[in-house]
Amino acid sequence: MKESRSLPLALWVAALLSGAAALIFETLWARSLVLMLGSTVEAHALVFAGFMLGLAVGAFACGALCERWRRVVRLYALVEIGIGVSGLAVGLLLHHHATALARYLGPLDSPARLGAAVVVVLVLVGLPTSLMGATFPLLLQAARGLGGRLGDLYGLYATNTLGGACGTLAAAVVTLPAWGVTRSLYFAAGLDLCAAGLVATLPGGLTATEPPPAREDEAPRGVLGTAAPDWLLLLSAFASGFVVLAAEVVFSRVAGFFLGNRTFAFAVLLGWILALLAAGSSLAGRMAPWTGRNVPLGLGLLWAASAALTLGSSLALFGWTRWQSAAESFLVDAGAPLVLLRVLETGLLLGPMMLAAGCVFPASLLCSAAARRRTGWAGGRFYLVNTAGGVLGSLLSGFWGVVRLGTFAWARVLVWICCGAACAFLIYASVHERRGRRRLALGLGLLGLGGAILPLGEVAGSLELGVRPGPARRTLLRREDEHGVFQVIEEPDGALSVVNNRTELVFQLGRLETSYVQQMQGHLGMAYCPQARRALVLGSGYGITAGALGLYPTLGRVDAVEIVPAMVEAADLFMPFNLGYHRNPKVHVVVGDGRHFLARASEPYDIISVNVSDPHLPGGSALFHAEFYALAQAHLRPGGVLIQHAFGTDVAIVTATLRAAFPHLVLTRAYQNGFNVVAAMQPLRIDERAVRELVDAPAVARALAGLGFLPPVDLVGMLVHGAPLDVPGAERAPLATDDFPRLELSWSGSPELWLFSNE
């Protein structure tokens, strides 16, 4: 990295390492907090809000403190040490005790539970995130104390943000797969300690001088102007945070259609966003001299550019979701080059908007008169306001904007917010400087062309992406909510496809193999545990498994847990294949995270059936880990069984992990790429007489007949005398654990699956 004229190289490297460590820590904490709170949209929002609140409070408090602390560089080094130590301690606590902490929280929809979760999150991550927030004003104040110009601070902020992008990608691609969660936590702590050590080598020991008085050569030429009051600049910082985080939600939603749903895809998206914000900050420093003394005019033009580029990125995203398949048809079998192309596509589509957005916040801060005299104090105040805008923008976008208005209609609102900010600055510029009036007329005229964004609203209702119905296909249900775009599509032969975003949630309904595999997850449980009185189905999907279990007269209660609300709401469309599970008084349907539900369960079960749609999906993969199987053991009655749908390119890992937890397994063929596995702590035997009595129940017999089990076909005989099955390579396969989430980070199979999966 090229050294600045004013600042030592050590400070630049420390800023880079600090940003990388912060994002690695936050990535790892978020994983554990989701295990504790549940892998739901609400839980993710709570974790995000807790992180951002800590950052904002730390920045604001330290901004006021660092002005009274004469040895700012020493304080910065101590804060980096504090982040490393507290971040590691919190990470280890969450990683090893997330499931235990979950047991003390009530149901997700309970107000008491929500309040308790807020307190727990703030207590656990409050100290390290506050210290992370404190690094922002400290870094700026230390740079000023070491003789840096205000112009240097653009690059320093960009370097810190770029470090965050590197940390995001490193966690997903390097440290987690190679070292696991525990050693990744130590690695992040080591980065913070290295940053502290580098700061300790700065000239003059650990003592910074007083911030130098402003020099004439750094004042007016665009880095600093006095024509804009702080209240207007703070409003700009707030709007910048709002637009950037709201746009991130929009782009995350749409990018899921062409980039994928795997952890790697999310890391690529976030990495691009942070890298582009860093580039925007650096660009702001280069553009600053062009604005002259008229800061409102410069910021007005910057906001106008943000409006235009946000519109351009939104239209490009909309078009690309429809043209991608045709454009990439020549690379359909290209493998890794296709994945690389999609990574580059993401940067090109996000680039225009994020580059412009990355300019606004640092420009607003460094155009403040306070930034020259009280750099740390101004940095903390602006960071607080910017973060508050970001939290509001993210939550409002995720829970209201895209839900009530639609993804692209909400993007139009963001464009108009940018236009409004541009108008505010241009009007202020024209009032306070005569020369600005002609520029104002031109600027307002260009903004008046914002009517051209109306087509963006017109297409808002057609975000069907990836499953566009043709003449022979019919959309039976479409719902866009905080979980994504949920669609039920009727195929030409009458089968139903259920898609969330671009991921097919379950194999097509109406196919015999779908009913067979999912019903057998219930029938197998009763065959090996005929005395069962209580059952749990995790990942109810269409509801077929819960429906089959609900038919047995001896079974008193079935809890069916499904994480996608629309799957439950669409249950009537899945009749009669789901056997009317949602209308059966014995079946209690719960919308939520399966592992979290089991951790909080107070009553043991005789049967636990796990039918998760994708073992590679973040959140879903946790239901294939050794820790989950230990949790299931603790919630099984003596003689109880667990049934797991094990499938896909990594079925050997799933089977090996199951076998390590349960000494007795029986595998029966499911779809072509997997098995229904029955697992137990005791030897698995079938009581033929008891099972025959169960399957003679009229409702059970009718359901089995629908699968083709007609006289003289004998279900019990097939189970007892069927050829034993096994998975090649399972005896040598590594285990999937919370520490090493091998399924979630798998690179096995076709390169196309590295981004998209449901096998």
Fold and architecture overview:
With 759 residues, the protein is an alpha/beta fold. Helix 4 crosses helix 5 and helix 7 (263-287) crosses helix 9 (336-366). The chain contains 23 helices and 11 strands. Residues 1-5, 204-226 and 451-469 have low confidence and may be disordered. Helices cover 59% and strands 10% of the residues. The protein folds into 4 domains: 1-212, Up-down Bundle (Growth Hormone, Chain: A), CATH 1.20.1250; 217-373 and 387-463, Growth Hormone, Chain: A (Up-down Bundle), CATH 1.20.1250; 474-506, no CATH class; 512-754, Vaccinia Virus protein VP39 (Rossmann fold). The strands form 2 sheets. Strands 7-6-5-8-9-11-10 form a 7-stranded mixed sheet, with helices on both faces. Strands 1-2-3-4 form a 4-stranded antiparallel sheet.
Low-confidence stretches: 1-5, 204-226, 451-469
CATH A-level architecture of the largest domain: 3-Layer(aba) Sandwich
End-to-end Cα distance = 43 Å
Q: Which fold does the CATH topology of the largest domain refer to?
A: Rossmann fold
The first-level CATH class name of the largest domain: Alpha Beta
Total count of domains: 4
**Which value, in Å, is the CA radius of gyration?**
29 Å
Mean pLDDT: 82
Helix content: 55-70%
- Helix/strand class: alpha/beta
Largest sheet, order of strands side by side? 7-6-5-8-9-11-10
Q: Please outline the major beta sheet.
A: 7 strands, mixed
Shape: elongated
Beta strand count: 11
- Would you identify the CATH H-level superfamily of the largest domain? Vaccinia Virus protein VP39
Q: What share of residues are in beta strands? A: 5-15%
